[in-house]
Write a structure and sequence with these properties.
The chain is of the alpha+beta class and 437 residues long. 33% of the residues lie in helices and 28% in strands. The strands form six sheets. Strands 3, 7, 8, 9, 10, 11, 12, 13 and 16 form a nine-stranded mixed sheet that branches. Strands 20-19-21-22-23 form a five-stranded mixed sheet, with helices on both faces. Helix 1 crosses helix 10 and helix 2 packs across helix 10. The longest helix is centred in the middle third of the chain and has 21 residues. Bound molecules: 5'-O-(N-(L-cysteinyl)-sulfamoyl)adenosine. The site of 5'-O-(N-(L-cysteinyl)-sulfamoyl)adenosine has 19 residues, from strand 8, strand 13, strand 16 and helix 10.
Length: 437
């Protein structure tokens, strides 16, 4: 992509409406624009990141046998009356009336919709287990939408739903999602800590929030030091095997948010206790038969008797993650994208657009990178070098290749690693070899 043609309206000054760094940087880098409170348009640069995150989430869901589908954003109110959540949901639900005066709503989540679909189709225990998910926009009319995409009103969520024959099978599904979450967040360059969360009407220990630590996090979290340093997401673990021991090794260690915190347990931890602020990027729940009862998701068991499906649901805040990753990875100059979600891998800066030698050197390496399948953004604008450097640091691509008259004369390029700040002058071939390695 050529920056001279790319729609990336960057902003020099800090926007006054943004209170936290990720919101500031997303606006400044031209990733998003606000439409109304808590509702955003995703401009090309931001959309590329959103899609990369979505793809990683998708791959890890597929890897545990969840199947992707797509449910609508608009749902009929009757669906929610059936589960008795229509009134209970309160003002956070955006209620809509269609031309025939039918009550509709913009879905804040999809338990009702998926259970109705499943109930209609499932007949026998052979139809179980079943795990389905979609990645779809949600609407919650939050009292205080803030921090940009971190607490939006319209936001993108991955929500998965599991249907099982009994509690043990439901726990296996829960455990698979638990491990898929650790892997997903690790691939996104994040250390997400599973924390005990409110399990709602069912009780038990099967509800976890996945939290990343950041100064601007909305909740106060406390946990054992080991959980922060742990690299569990990269553990080589077969999700077909018994996951319980692996999961217990986590949940045996203290970790809790807000009102789940336990002063006694924290005192006992002594120096091993870490208290910090955190961002909830995912939340998994087991809720038994709450919805399957309401929608009669009943199958014939192996002995012919009726069995009501055991369910769980599993959410990831896909759009929130864009802000969350920036909170976890930036410096004074701008964003520092982990390679897996970067909008482009390489930013190629032509320091003197219009100079034949510079133009040619840039075009050569631009073509070579593209031929090698590497996503590259070429700054071919007729602009000052300082402005080009500043924009490239702001948008945070993992690698920068800088080409100016001096370098061309010397037969080298400057290769800079955005995260480490290291620069080296090497031949274009050597740079290509490093970038394609
Ligand atoms: N039905 C369940 C699981 S599918 C559910 O809705 N869970 S949730 O309410 O915890 O949401 C799942 C994830 O969506 C959260 O962990 C959070 O990362 C994200 N999320 C929730 N509300 C917002 C919001 N207002 N803005 C951005 N992301 C949000």
């Amino acid at each position: 992509m050529r920056l001279s043609r790319f729609f990336m309206p960057t902003i020099k000054e800090n926007p006054s409406e943004a209170q936290i760094v990720s919101h500031r940087l997303m606006l400044r880098a031209g990733m998003i624009r606000q439409s109304s409170a808590g509702i955003y348009s995703w401009l090309p640069l931001g959309f590329r990141v959103l899609q990369k995150i979505e793809q990683i989430v998708r791959q890890e869901q597929d890897a545990i046998g969840a199947q992707e589908m797509l449910m609508p954003t608009i749902q009929p109110a009757d669906l929610w009356r059936q589960s008795e959540r229509y009134d209970a949901y309160g003002p956070e639900m955006l209620r809509i009336t269609d031309r025939h005066d039918r009550d509709m709503l913009y879905g804040p989540t999809n338990e009702e919709q998926i259970t109705e679909i499943f109930a209609d189709a499932a007949k026998s225990y052979r139809d179980l287990p079943r795990m389905l998910y979609h990645i779809q926009w949600k609407f919650r009319d939050e009292v205080r939408p803030r921090f940009g995409v971190m607490r939006g009103r319209e936001f993108l969520m991955k929500d998965a739903y599991s249907f099982d024959l009994d509690f043990d099978a439901a726990r296996r599904s829960y455990n698979k999602q638990f491990v898929a979450y650790l892997k997903t967040f690790a691939r996104l360059g994040l250390t997400a800590i599973p924390m005990k969360a409110d399990s709602g009407p069912i009780g038990g220990d099967m509800s976890h929030e996945f939290v990343i630590l950041a100064e601007t996090g909305e909740s106060e979290v406390a946990c054992h030091r080991d959980l922060i340093a742990a690299d569990w997401g990269n553990a080589d673990i077969n999700t077909e095997g018994d996951l319980q021991p692996f999961i217990d090794s986590f949940t045996d260690k203290y970790a809790a948010t807000d009102d789940k915190r336990d002063p006694e347990a924290e005192k006992a931890l002594g120096d091993d206790l870490v208290v910090a602020r955190g961002i909830e990027v995912g939340h998994i729940f087991y809720f038994g038969t709450k919805y399957s009862k309401a929608f009669k998701a009943v199958v014939a068991g192996p002995d012919g008797s009726d069995v009501t499906a055991e369910m769980g649901s599993y959410g990831i805040g896909v759009s929130r993650l864009v802000g969350g990753i920036i909170e976890a990875s930036h410096d004074d100059a701008g964003i520092i994208w982990p390679e897996a979600v970067a909008p482009f891998k390489v930013g190629l800066i032509n320091l003197k657009t219009g100079d034949d030698a510079c133009d040619k050197a840039c075009e050569d390496i631009y073509r070579q990178l593209q031929d090698a399948g590497i996503e590259v953004l070429l700054d071919d604008r007729d602009a000052r070098a300082g402005a080009k450097f500043a924009d490239m640091d702001l948008i945070g691509l993992p690698w920068q290749v800088v080409i100016g008259p001096k370098a061309v004369a010397a037969g080298v390029v400057e290769l800079k690693n955005r995260a480490r700040g290291e620069r080296q002058e090497i031949s274009a071939d050597a740079a290509m070899a490093l970038l394609t390695a």
